[in-house]
Amino acid sequence: MGEQRWEDLFADLDAQMAMQNRLEADAETADRTRREQALVGWVDRVIGHRTQPLSLVLDGGVIIEGAVRDVGADWLLVRPQSGGEDLVRTAAVLSITGLGRRVGSDVTSRRFGLGSVLRELARDRAPVEVVDRRGGRSAGTIDVVHADALELARHDLTEARRAENVLGRVIIPFDAVSVVRRR
User: What is the number of H-type helices and E-type strands within the chain?
Assistant: First the structure.
């Protein structure tokens, strides 16, 4: 009977030690996970969910529901469910729903900034609608892209950008832009 007590005692100690080791390993894993998550930016999460439907709330009360197609240094290109393409300035994003835990790689994002993309739109003479951070809308064609602003020739989007159709020009600083819509 005495021998059984020793075996029970040792078995109990072994079980306690194993439980303690499991708890320490779990705590270490949880701590490592928290440290790794602290290094992940929200854009990295967006990159990991490309082509999946997301909902973005932007400055100015703009809500975009669609799939992110491309990511740049300070912008997202979203294909809204309503059609067209929306060039979203990342600084204008207030919240995102639809993201899981997956994280994308920086390799899949483009290094060039918003100004470079806007210059391409200007070169293509693409009609756009610019929505500013307070929700104001300006429609027309980007004529010039400066270091920190775009110059828009305002005209009805159903009309070509011709001198007689231009209603005026407006300069919009990049910092004021929420989204540039191309339909």
Answer: 3, 10
Per-residue pLDDT tens digits for 58-115: 999 999 999 999 999 999 999 999 999 999 999 999 999 999 888 886 555 688 999 9
The pTM assigned to this predicted structure is: 0.80
- Residue 43 CA to residue 105 CA, distance in Å, equals 10
Q: Please choose, from the candidates 45, 50, 37, the residue with its C-alpha nearest in 3D space to the C-alpha of residue 77.
A: 50
The 10s digit of each residue's pLDDT in 13-23 is 888 888 988 88
Residue pair 151/166 in contact (Cβ under 8 Å)? The answer is no
| CA contacts within 13 A on the Cβ side of 32 | 6
- The side-by-side arrangement of strands in the sheet containing 93-97 is 93-97, 53-58, 63-71, 75-80, 85-89, 177-182, 127-132, 137-145, 149-154, 168-173
Strand partners, 154: 140, 168
Neighbouring CB atoms inside 10 A of 65's CB total 14
Structure tokens at 36: 């790794």
Q: What does the alpha-carbon distance between residue 181 and residue 176 come to, in Å, rounded to a whole number?
A: 15
Please give the sequence-ordered ranges of beta strands (E in DSSP) within 14-136, or none if there are none. 53-58, 63-71, 75-80, 85-89, 93-97, 127-132
Q: Tokens 């709330």 map to which residue?
A: 57
